[in-house]
Specification:
Aspartate Aminotransferase, domain 1, Aspartate Aminotransferase, domain 2, globular, 392 residues, single chain, 13 helices, binds pyridoxal-5'-phosphate, 2 domains, alpha/beta, 39% helix
């Protein structure tokens, strides 16, 4: 085993007890995350809430998340999760009357509900769903659905269900030809594969921490392209979302509460923090900061080419060689591999009894290894699947 992987695994205690292949459900905790949360709670308990440190850590977590996707500090907002971030963003867009949104049927459901909510309030005229076949949505389908009345194209970088890795740059190009913006949910991609929002021409991106980035629930980020920030007009807001917020005061070197807040005017922040609204889940962001440092220290996304993609390929090859039908398209994927199974729940229970963790989904088993998994773990997993099916 390479030395880096031994080091990584020694910091993820579940790897010594289980074969953990469910990063698309929730990532395992690292020692780094647990230690940082414990230390934060200890300080709060012993000395009182470390408020200045909270503010500094929020800024630092935004900066580090930005560095993972190629975004600048002013383009990143710290939010409690993907659904929250999407709603903050969508409610700030100035949309012309009668426009439609296009979303991939492979997206996680939450994005549809945010769009349907806008449609039922009459903000959007229609939500068009780009249907998939054979595990992916063709570019032709996007071409057909996106028109000059489309204002938003919402697409997950990697599908939570089939594992398809979308052709974001091409989709962005189609959307931009028609004047629409592209919003990407990168929950199953950030930390797994290298991402560059500028190269992909992404207008906005949302991501949470508790899956592949191996942080806690309650922490996530929104990236908004600088030029788009100027066009936002928030319908909802709060004391952390204004130009004179305490965090802005801290960054200007001012004392946080020396001046009163001006309650007679509304000047939203001129950066992505206009989407932050109120106090962040500080405990979650302590863990998130430790998780981001871990991701960067171990160069997680850049291990994809040299390691993760190889174990994913081995997984696909082994499953197919044993006669299993992959749902994940071979043409484009990241680290989610789904295959058909008639009894996914029974199989998942069997695997769990063998200390192997995967996700059952309707008619499929979803396996999601990450950069810390090994070839031996993949082989043991496939052997246990075959063992279950041979017993029937
Ligand atoms: C792609 C994707 N986006 C969003 C979510 C939900 O995120 P949140 O609960 O932070 O709103 C999930 C959850 O599994 C997901 O897979």
């Amino acid at each position: 085993m390479d030395s880096w992987i031994g080091d990584v695994r020694s910091r993820i205690s579940i790897t010594s007890k289980k074969i953990y292949l469910d990063n698309a459900g929730a990532g395992p905790l690292t020692k780094d995350v647990i230690d940082s949360i414990e230390s934060f709670l200890r300080i709060w308990n012993d000395e009182g809430e470390p408020w200045d440190e909270v503010l500094e850590h929020i800024v630092e977590s935004r900066r580090l998340f930005g560095s993972l996707i190629g975004g600048k500090l002013n383009e990143i907002a710290a939010v409690p999760g993907v659904s929250f971030g999407l709603n903050a963003l969508l409610s700030s867009l100035k949309l012309d009357k009668g426009t439609n949104a296009v979303a991939s049927s492979l997206n996680f459901p939450t994005g549809f509900y945010t769009l349907h909510a806008l449609r039922s309030r009459g903000v959007l005229s229609e939500v068009r769903i780009a249907e998939h076949s054979d595990g992916y949505v063709s570019l032709d389908t996007y071409e057909r659905l996106i028109d000059d009345k489309t204002s938003i194209v919402l697409v997950d970088y990697v599908s939570w269900i089939t594992g398809y890795r979308e052709r974001i740059r091409e989709i962005a190009s189609i959307a931009h030809e028609h004047g629409a913006i592209v919003i990407v949910d990168s929950f199953h991609a950030t930390g797994v594969v290298p991402i560059d929002v500028k190269a992909d021409d992404i207008d906005a991106l949302v991501c949470g921490m508790y899956k592949w980035l191996m942080g806690p629930h309650g922490a996530g980020f929104v990236y908004v392209r600088e030029e788009l920030i100027d066009d936002l007009e928030p319908m909802l807001s709060g004391w952390m979302a204004i130009e004179d917020s305490v965090i802005k005061r801290m960054l200007r070197g001012e004392r946080l509460f020396e001046r009163p807040f001006n309650i007679y005017e509304f000047k939203p922040a001129r950066d992505a923090t206009m989407l932050e609204w109120g106090t962040w889940p500080a405990i979650a962001f302590e863990g998130a900061l430790a998780a981001l440092k871990f991701a960067i220290r171990f160069d997680m996304p850049n291990r994809y080419g040299s390691h993760t993609s190889k174990i994913v390929r081995r997984l696909m090859d082994l499953l197919e060689s044993k006669g299993y039908k992959l749902v994940t398209p071979r043409s484009s994927y990241a680290a989610i591999v789904s295959f058909r199974h008639e009894r996914p729940y029974e199989l998942a229970f069997h695997l769990k009894s063998r200390g192997i963790i995967v996700s059952p989904r309707p008619g499929i088993i979803r396996v999601s290894p990450h950069f810390y998994n090994t070839f031996e773990e993949i082989e043991k997993f496939v052997d246990s699947v075959v063992e279950f099916d041979n017993k029937r």
